[in-house]
Hints:
Number of helices of chain A: 11
Radius of gyration of chain A: 23 Å
Structural class of chain A: alpha/beta
Helix content of chain A: 25-40%
Shape of chain B: globular
Oligomer: heterodimer
Largest interface: A-B, 37 and 32 residues
Number of strands of chain A: 14
Largest sheet of chain A: 6 strands, mixed
Strand content of chain A: 25-35%
Number of strands of chain B: 0
Amino acid sequence: MTIxxxxxxxxxxxxxxxxxxxxxxxxxxxEIFGFLGPNGAGKTTAIRTLMDEIRATAGSATIVDLxxxxxxxxxxxxxxxxxxxxxxxxxxxxxxxxxxxxxLRGGVEWPHVDELxxxxxxDLSKKVGDLSTGNRQKVGLILAFMNRPQVLIMDEPSSGLDxxxxxxxxxxxxxxxxxxxxxxxxxxxLSEVQRVADRVGIIRHGHLIAxxxxxxxxxxxxxxxxxxxxxxxxxxxxESIAGVRDVEVRNHHISLSFDGHVETLLQAASDTxxxxxxxxxxxxxxxxxxxYYRDEV
Amino acid sequence: MLTNVFTKTxxxxxxxxxxxxxxxxxxxxxxxxxxxxxxxxxxxxxPVAFRTMFGIPENADVGSLxxxxxYGSYGMLTMAALALATGAAxxxxxxxxxxxxxxxxxxxxxxxxxxxxxxxxxxxxxxGFVILWVAAIATPAILDVSTIGLDINALxxxxxxxxxxxxxxxxxxxxxxxNSSLASGVSAGVMVVSFIAVGLLPIVSGWENLAKVFPWYYxxxxxxxxxxxxxxxxxxxxxxxxxxxxxxVVGINRRDLRGQSVGVKxxxxxxxxxxxxxxxxxFAGTARVSRIxxxxxxxxxxxxxxxxxxxxxxxxxxxxxxxxxxxxxKDFGAAIPDAMLAMFxxxxxxxxxxxxxxxxxxxxxxxxxxxxxxxxxxxxxxxxEKRNTMGLLLANPIRRxxxxxxxxxxxxxxASIVGFATFLGTAAxxxxxxxxxxxxxxxxxxxxxxxxxxxxGGLALALGAATGRVPVAVFGSVGVAFVTxxxxxxxxxxxxxxxxxxxxxxxxxxxxxxxxxxLNWIHAGxxxxxxxxxxxxxxxxxxxxDLRAKG
Lengths: 297, 551
């Protein structure tokens, strides 16, 4: 497995504020890594440090085996980047913008750009200043993909994209990693990461608090369970069961989150009253995310 | 009226008004003190054109001169400029910043927002004039200058009404078009043209009445400080402001609001047109984005055109003008104290070189080059960070130093173009006026002006590279330029501090009298060395720091 991005004790302080603390992680080639966290958790700080926009207080990072600070220029030949809060030159058209940045890299591969523009439904003839947020974001995505990089680093790349374009973008990402690329993608849109990422890191207050595959996270098996009875039920009968939380009772219906043995739950249900119906839903990352943050949210 | 919109607008701009009014008040104090010590006949003997333009009354004494020339002329221009900037920003800036939608997302009418902005304009203008009024009362008392026979209240009231006129003019354009740059540009243009026309037209036989077409006439012609208020003239200005207010209300309600759109320019239309596409692309298309320095050049080409063309025109006019007023100038020059001449860069008015130095090279040429170099220096680095585009730029495989070098290339080329335009204008002016100036010496002076501008551009670049903040880069370099200009202009007047002038870059510009002596290579070397050192420092400072997340 080739490691595309490697960080070791990566730390960034702004005075007394610890924006990023001891970040250790690897992102492999052929992998989409989702970097999740609430606003202000340190996602953008990590990305800007990787891109050498800001310099680490301690620790180090490499991208394709090159040091992110010392070899930053060389690294950028291999990286496509979408900054958070993307801004471009408003008086240039999308085409001008692409030409400008391509010239800094040594030329444009227009057929590839045109293909990307078509897939993302981007209008490159308009001035960037006249584009909506989503359409401007499409130009940003084309800039990231157009030079066929080895690594994509993207800070909230789906901002403003409509669902159809989001789907196309996710397809592009999947094709990119299938061809051996690595993606480091920050997001607070959990459903997006759930759909595209292979592995997820969860960051809070600058600390990486979890690092697992999406399937591992799912296997934490938090389920939303709804039980329907033929008579009134008492929440107390369920609250004492290990793995049960968030119990809500509405007349004959009880709703709860559960990550224990189903057998125990069923036993308690049949002891309570006659069970008429049961539905369960697999927890999405949203719920898993909240579970991790349970003590802090 | 919406109290919170009014309060916020006022809060956003009061500091600018405070600084502007305080600067005028200080100038007034300084001017009145100087006028006490000099023979005022040099002003009263001035050609009528000069006197009218600068508001100097006939038979002026210390008081009337200070009020008339400093308040009535420089002060009036400053306050009117503040008013028109406030008026222009009122609606246009909200649209440019994309905040107008948020503002009008609340249950408030466009008219009520406009009225709140207009009320803020009136209050801010009044605030500025209260400061001027306090200074107008306190200064003569401190300096023991008589103000008998002067109607200070009338002057300040007339100034207030005149400032509001330009404020409402800009407000109307801003509300009608949503374009704050257009509003401030057009209203400032009308103000300056009007100021000059009202000064000059009355002395041209047969054209006296044409001055009445220009609004400045209704402020200046009646000389309120000597004759009290002319209510008819005030009525014209108030009526004008009222008409502008109505136009503003109609304008804001009739049109689509602008988003953060950049608008469609002539070149965009040419690019879109089938027939002109190919040629327009050459100027505005891929050609302008082929390199960082070319794109930077493209960003500032309009500004360059205005500055270099203005310098060309101004310096071409001076030559023939010298021939017309040669005799008067010789007497005038002899009567002007050194301190006053120093204020405009020094120079012997009895010679044409001295006249050129006073009119063009003393102040205008360095100001013109610095306007370009500081604009590029500050905008180049800090501007990219402010607009949040630096991250995207640096996502490409280029060094930070490359960006600085590329922006520096634009700065050097543009500074040279302004210098060259000044040279061409002066050479043409000198030829037309048959002055027999040495073109090589003119070129030497222009080279030094260019190098001086580059030194301050380098400072702006370094400040921007170090902090990523545009205001620090602009105000820092302008502040240093102002202080070092004063150091060079005034300290040599005192025997004790004469040597201090060498601390100022301005000393190495005109200190060697290049118009008379040619290029002083050591001086050129000092200015070039300073510029190169500051460019190098910019690279070091920029390489080592974190980019700002948002300017």
